[in-house]
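Hi R.,

Here's the chain you asked about this morning:
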Amino acid sequence: MIITYHTAACFKVQFGDITLAFNPISKKSSTYKPARFGANAALISTEHPDFNGVEQVTYGEKEPFIARGPGEYEVSGVVIRGYLSESQYDGKKRHNTIYVVKLEGMTLCYLGALSEREVPQDAREALEDIDILFTPIGGNGVLDAADAYKLAVSLEPKVIIPMLHNAPGKDGDGITTFLEEGGREKVTSVDKLTLKQKDVAAKEGEIIVLAAQ
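And the predicted structure, written out as tokens:
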């Protein structure tokens, strides 16, 4: 599995011939520059231009299946479940979907633009044995760094990947605070993250910071 971060809350997750896009940035975003790549599925957590750029991952021969909310989906053998939660992103109350994805023997949990300090009960019951957790840490209507770390620890993932910490003009304090909450002074960011199930099995709450591409 190869995970690439494209700023904001946008991730490309590749495994074999399958590509998943989480919250691709739209051309209508006034804050972030969108990335362009083809995907088999696009998972949209929140209807906002910073997160719903499906047109950006419709590329070449790939026209993605689109998940836009709670429910159960299956795409090319990948099982995706979405759970309703809440976001206050950009100063407005919005629906947010927490996605749980099972692939390559691993479980990914993507919190999207979550603002709640606790996940809803129906989602909580599904969030067991999380291998990789994607969590917002940037404030501005989503979890701030301190609350995000507390929630992440309670979910007991093996790997934690922060997002929504790099809006233009931000000074990076979100990452600093998040690392301090985890008892770490500094973590060197990586351009891409390549993981196999055996790599993840031995980890316990490890924070990995991905550099935006």
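The chain has four helices and 13 strands.

Let me know if you need anything else.
M.
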